[in-house]
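Journal club side-thread
Mid-discussion, someone asked how the predicted structure for our own chain would compare to the paper's figures. Pasting it here so we can look after the session.
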Amino acid sequence: MHRFRYRENELYCENVPVRKIAEQVNTPFYLYSQQTIVDHYNLVDQAFSNFDHLICYAVKANANPEILSLLASQGAGADVVSRGEIYLALQNGFPAEKIVFAGVGKRPDEIEYALERKIYSFHVESEQELELINQIAQKKHQIARIALRINPDIEIHGHPYISTGKAIDKFGIEVKTVKELIQRIHEFSNIALIGLHCHIGSQVTEIKPYGEALQVLNELVEEIQKQGIELQYVDMGGGLGVRYKNVMEDPHGIELSPKILVESLRPQLECLNTRIIFEPGRFIVAQAGVVITRVLYLKETAGHRFVIVDAGMNDLIRPSLYEAYHEIVAVHQNAASKQPVDVVGPICESGDFLGKERWLPVLHPGDLLAVMTAGAYGFVLSSNYNARPLPAEVMVHDDTWEIIRPEQDLQNLWT
């Protein structure tokens, strides 16, 4: 569900013609629909309305301060994985008591930083990490609130780079070790075990893996209760997938509805008898953002047609990194017949492409294209490769728009 529509053959973001923005902002740039972000957050929040819950936005998906501030104002918490993300969350309105800190490689200074700011909880991913948090908390005369992140060994049938819940993945603690740590938790004098955490991966479009993870979580909750420990919450992770294909044909289409997910899992969620935390990132911001790029040249080699545009893998790396599919559409529709083309960028890599064998109308230099569903893991993964400045980011609200991050200038490339 998103707010990008054609009106009289012109692409609009909410009530603003994309072409009008491109007349004043250098391409390429990221363009976001504020209402789409709010709509998607509300879909998730309302899905859990019958439970004591906290929706912690995964800051890694898109960390623009305006987007963070918007979600904080809606009541969201923050799922963070670094000191920088803690800083951004606090600076943009997220209360410390709504921040949970995950990640397999927390540095000692990051643990200290989080303790000093009294975040809600650490999601612990190894026994050594638990020992280190305990030591640092001891030195600071604090009690560190933690949840143990389990690795349930569950397959999500997605790209291996975004799977996080299989036994061979680096994330979480295997169930056997979690059970041992529960038995020994009293040995950690400055630790309070208040939760369990599980995150099986990203772009999950099936209910079954969530159900399998909750089954493991429920069994562990029972074991913890036998130890006389009352948990405050169970964090079932995030990873809710979105639609990347045919998003313009069906702008209301949702790959997996949060409401259907929660209703299907209701018996298992009720058995937990704790607060539930859910950590969506992609679901909230992916369809809210697009990359607007301009055609530079057309080229045909050995019968192969290339559309060379000014956005490259430095701006949106997902197609090159994950072979991810993003729908590409013309900002101005025309009646010209379509032909298969490769949409490629200006970077000195053969892997620099936005889409291959895409059926697009006949294009000309100067024409604008929109790369859809780019609001998550887009700008946050951009780089200065080939000494190219980071693109601008623009937010639309109804019939107004503003630059929420200016294009990087050359003087600041390496400062």
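Post-session note: Residues 161-165 have pLDDT under 50 and may be disordered.
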